[in-house]
Design goal:
The structure is a single chain. By secondary structure, the chain is α/β, with parallel strands linked by helices. It folds into two domains: 50 residues, Urease, subunit C, domain 1; 153 residues, Metal-dependent hydrolases (TIM Barrel, Alpha-Beta Barrel), CATH 3.20.20. The strands form four sheets. It has a five-stranded parallel sheet with strand order 8-9-10-13-14. Strands 5-4-1-6 form a four-stranded mixed sheet, with no helix packed on it. It is elongated, with a radius of gyration of 22 Å.
């Protein structure tokens, strides 16, 4: 017996849009069928007549509980909403998977970065979730720039195993983006090495790809002009960058 059948809706599928019924067993969609062809004795039947039935959306860029970097916000301990809040909002909008970021720092391996972020989400999310593994050019121990540690080459070698374990995306930066995080930029040699590892393992590389010189020039100019509100963000991170 099927666990769930959704009948009568207009279904959006990879191959097109049509009037089909959808069958669910456990946590998987097991059939998209012509109306009336699925068994009638399902555990639950939803009448979707007059509605659109779509796959769950994916939020690929979330920052749950992240300290906000805006002026004075970090000093006051202001953070973005925690997983339970953002995941509930996602589900109400039809988004059923969240991808957040697991940031490497000195003293831990890539898998430990994933485990730390998982502890934040585990038992506190209404949606499915996973993480991008984030690599930076220089990791900082605590908040002291003088204690910056170069990205260990052994960490790049850990990328294929991480992808094989199910965490298929890796994030890198080609700019520091702000003077508040002066160590996150990775030089192109290291970016190339990560690209090679990700490609061979069948993963996806997410690149914050901007020109460091232009971003930092605009950062300095905007500060000198006293235009440092978020309404000027597009000038620092302009189309040319």
């Amino acid at each position: 017996m099927l666990d769930l059948v959704v009948r009568g809706g207009r279904v959006v599928a990879p191959w097109g849009v049509g009037a089909w019924d959808v069958a669910v067993q456990g946590e998987k969609i097991v059939a998209v069928a012509e109306p009336g062809t699925l068994p009638l004795d399902a555990g639950r039947v939803i009448d979707a007549t007059g509605k659109i039935v779509i796959p769950g959306g994916i939020e690929p860029h979330a920052h749950a509980a992240m300290p906000l970097p805006y002026p004075n916000a970090r000093d006051r301990g202001v953070r973005a909403a925690p997983p339970d809040v953002i995941s509930k909002a996602c589900v109400f909008g039809g988004t059923t998977t969240i991808v957040d970021f697991a940031n490497w720092r000195p003293g831990i391996e890539l898998v430990q970065a994933i485990e730390e972020k998982d502890r934040l989400f585990r038992g506190h999310s209404y949606a499915d979730y996973t993480f991008h593994a984030v690599l930076v050019g220089m990791g900082t121990e605590g908040s002291t720039p003088e204690r910056a540690v170069p990205l260990p080459l052994s960490l790049i070698d850990q990328v294929p195993e991480l992808i094989r374990s199910g965490f298929s995306t890796v994030k890198v930066w080609t700019t520091n983006a702000t003077t508040k995080r002066p160590r996150q930029m990775m030089d192109l040699g290291h970016v190339w090495a990560v690209m090679e590892k990700v490609a061979k393992a069948g993963g996806v590389l997410a690149v914050h790809a901007e020109d460091e010189d232009i971003v930092m020039y605009m950062h300095r100019r905007l500060h000198e002009e006293g235009r440092i509100g978020t309404e000027f963000l597009h000038e620092a991170h302009n189309t040319l960058t």
